[in-house]
Amino acid sequence: MQQGEGKRSGPIIEQQLNIQQSIDKILDDFSQNRLTQAEELFQQVLDLVSDEPQFLNMLGVVAFQIGNKEQALEIIAKAIVINPNVADYHYNLGNLQFQQGLFEEAVVSYENTLEINSEYVDAYNNQALALKELGRLNEAEAIFKEVISLNSLYADAYVNLGLLYEDASRWDDAIDSYKMSLYINPGLDFVHLNLGNAYSKQGDFESAIDCFTVALSTSPDLDHIYFNLGNAYKELENYELAVDCYQKSSILSDAVLALETDVSDDPLDVNRHFNLANMYASLCRWDEAISCFKKALSINPNISEIHFNKGNVYKNIGAFESAIASYQMSIDLDPNVGRAHHNLANTFQALGRMEEAINSFRTVISISPDNAKAHSVLVFLHTFIADITGEIMLKEARHWNDLHSYKDIMTGYQNTH
Fold first, then answer.
1. d(CA 153, CA 65)
2. pTM above 0.70?
3. Containing H/E element for 317?
4. How far apart are CA 258 and CA 85, in angstroms?
5. Do 296 and 270 contact (CB within 8 A), yes or no?
6. pLDDT single digits (tens) 267-291
């Protein structure tokens, strides 16, 4: 009996080898653009194994790879009809449905997979991805955590959790997840970029720079890394390094060229000069930005926002008097623009002109009573005015209609003075 069984296994193995060789030939023909040959051989193999689910499953995947997406779903569905108890069939069907955007159907296929094999970690992970695509974020989060409970070293689950948290602006959670994925697999080069972006969103630009620097040595996506690294240096007002990074990234080169072309096509359009100026400013190309702002204002000098943005460029390069003049022009054209008063106040503060800074921050508060930053800066600036009492300092810096908070502040002040 054993010999007989051994003899019977020979043709099966031979058939499997022949089918595998045929599949390899189909894929090779397809990659070499021999589409007719690939299609003909595919159909021959399909006719040969039309009632054998294990081969139908394989051919379904091949059909998808060579572009026969609808047929791929039909072939694997047929394999499942013949034998519904193989987890891989349902899993592959779910993957094909996912790749075609059929997320509801994919969720069901992954569920069927897990009913057969409750420890199929990849099925859990992909089901969570499908749920995320459907906006069912709480369910997706719970399943990603289930994946981690089944396999604490499953780095992709931590990555996917990080992406989910990033979409929800849960930056602390995103950072923790990305760190865990890198602890498990330091070779996940794109995660260094994601982690750097999360730190940037938190305002931790030093940590972001560390991540982007590591990413430069591991990731092929240099354009995005240099661009984000430049943004981080810019936030730290290290404009020299920011410019160097921007010059190494071509991510905005097409956009700059398009805006420059727009200006050439209609040199009297104020908005085109304004848009180009803003682009130059975002890249720390200060001289070009100022030139474009001036050109825009020569066409129409009565646009408050252009004066405001020009003032920001002057402020960034330390030309504070020019910045003040630009902010004042912006305010003259629109006195209710709180951010112009705010930046004017900051510029006065940088020059040590504290009385003027205080007056400007008071104007900010009169426009936006809930501006917590303006209130807090006023507390600091009042320390430079000799005849201001502590009570007045705190009273002006509180949220005017929050009496409870004011009492708490005064209690704390009185207890320390």
1. 30
2. no
3. none
4. 57
5. yes
6. 999 999 999 999 899 888 999 999 9
